[in-house]
Amino acid sequence: EEISLFDKVMVYDKVRQRLVSSPAQSPEQGTATHGNTYEQTLIWQHYQNTIEAAKILNVDLDKISNWTKTCEMLKPIEIGESGQIKEWYEETYIGSMGEKNHRHMSHLLGLYPGNLISVETKEWLDAAIVSLIDRGDLVTGWGTAQRLNAWARTGDGEHSFVILQKFISNRLFHNLWDFRPPFQIDGNYGITAGMAEMLIQSNLGYINLLPALPSNWSSGSFEGLMARGNVVVDAFWINS
């Protein structure tokens, strides 16, 4: 069975018993394969978002059942022999495919900006942390910002704060532009998004206040941060 989607084709993989996008390509690391974590997760997230939108808008309700079945057949996440989130399903241990410590981590988009991997899926979250540690923090500005957001989603405020310090100390020109000649505005946007993720998260359907609060921010306040659902949040805390 084939399902047309975004000018690609999803086919049923009898060996792994899942729908896969084929051919699949992992960003910046190459290796065309029969499905991979990045594409499977991206497709899963699009279906989930569409299902949620249909329910909110009360449209296409007759299609939700089929969309849900497709989501269940994607099975995007697998854990490898090193305890990591696999980037490719053929991968075994970290480094068996691709480049160790590569700056990109697109196979973790289920952690951020998606919601497939979260504090509610502990086994996957632990595996995502293994992958984050392997990728390291010494990357360009945009990569630093991506890591800040991902670590904030894990709830690790101390590691998030270290990454934020590195960005401010090593990744900014004097005019506060993110340097990656001439500059990378996504680093600036991403790092502020990461700071917000440290203070408030709402990607799981509820508001989580101070989810990745470092000890350096034991007291503080913020005003005007937006949570999903068009909710404006102000907060202050003392000796948390």
What does this protein structure show overall?
With 240 residues, this protein is α+β, with helices and mostly antiparallel strands. The chain is built from six helices and nine strands; from the N terminus they run E-E-E-E-E-H-H-H-H-H-H-E-E-E-E. Helix 4 runs parallel beside helix 6 (185-199). The chain is 37% helix and 17% strand. It has helices spanning 37-57, 64-74, 122-135, 141-154, 157-170, 185-199, and strands spanning 2-5, 8-13, 18-22, 24-26, 30-33, 200-201, 208-209, 220-227, 231-237. The strands form four sheets. The chain has a three-stranded antiparallel β-sheet. Strands 4-5 form a two-stranded antiparallel sheet.
Q: Quick gist of this model?
A:
The protein is 37% helix and 17% strand. The protein is of the alpha+beta class and 240 residues long.
Keywords:
240 residues, alpha+beta, 3-stranded antiparallel β-sheet, two-stranded antiparallel sheet, 6 helices, 37% helix, 17% strand, globular, disordered N terminus
